[in-house]
Amino acid sequence: MTSVDFFFDPGCPFTWRTSRWITEVADAGAATVTWRLMSLSILNEDKDIPEEFRPLMAQGVRVLRVLAAVEDNDARGRLFTALGVRRHDNGEDWDDTLLAAAIADAGLPATLLDAADDTGLDVVIKASHEESQTAVGQEAGSPVLRLGAKAWFGPVVVPVPTGDEAMRLFDAVKLLAEVPSFSELKGSRNPF
């Protein structure tokens, strides 16, 4: 099995789709995934964010705090899945009602919602975010995928590859991780 660090901001719909791909790869027994946090709010803190996105960014910080409070990797993965299903698959509002329901869906204690207001967890989020950026070597969005010493932004996948296609993509990513001179590959994004 290949160890993968998956750095994510749960509010990103592209990240959600990539997470479903890497989850399929893990479920097939080809990888173990460590769910790591990164923050699009931190990434964009010195940028001019349109007013309509600011409430989503503020709620994203609250969601990341709850995820940071979950130290068990499997539980963090379950919570991320519950959040993503509700937000990205079902289109629910990105609010505390969704957050509380996702906590319950993941089988975690309702008191975990209190972590949304624990600013002490911001240190944990920032450290993980900085690790993702250092791993890539430059400013990168969500997700960041790290295999061993190699990390990249992405891959961005729409629609989510499944079955043989999922495994072929993973094999390609593993191969690229073995080529020290490889650093970047980018194309236009598919629509949702």
Q: What is the radius of gyration computed over CA atoms, rounded to a whole number of angstroms? A: 16 Å
Instruction: Let me know the average pLDDT.
Output: 94
Strand content: 5-15%
Number of domains: 1
Helical fraction equals 40-55%
Number of strands: 4
The profile of the biggest β sheet is:
4 strands, mixed
Overall geometry: globular
Question: What is shown here, in short?
Answer:
This protein has 192 residues and is α+β, with helices and mostly antiparallel strands. Helix content is 48%, strand content 11%.
How is this structure best described in words?
The structure is a single chain. With 192 residues, the protein is an alpha+beta fold. It has a single domain (2-177), classed as Glutaredoxin (3-Layer(aba) Sandwich). 48% of the residues lie in helices and 11% in strands. The chain contains 7 helices and 4 strands, in the order βαβαααααββα. The chain has helices at residues 13-27, 40-43, 54-69, 73-89, 96-105, 122-136, 163-177; strands spanning 2-8, 31-37, 144-147, 150-153. Strands 2-1-3-4 form a 4-stranded mixed beta sheet, sandwiched between helices. A hairpin with a 2-residue loop joins strand 3 and strand 4. Helix 1 (13-27) packs across helix 7 (163-177) and helix 4 packs across helix 5 (96-105). The longest helix has 17 residues, at 73-89. It is globular.
Question: Secondary-structure map with pairings?
Answer:
Blueprint: E1 2-8, H1 13-27, E2 31-37, H2 40-43, H3 54-69, H4 73-89, H5 96-105, H6 122-136, E3 144-147, E4 150-153, H7 163-177
Parallel strand pairs: 1-2
Antiparallel strand pairs: 1-3, 3-4
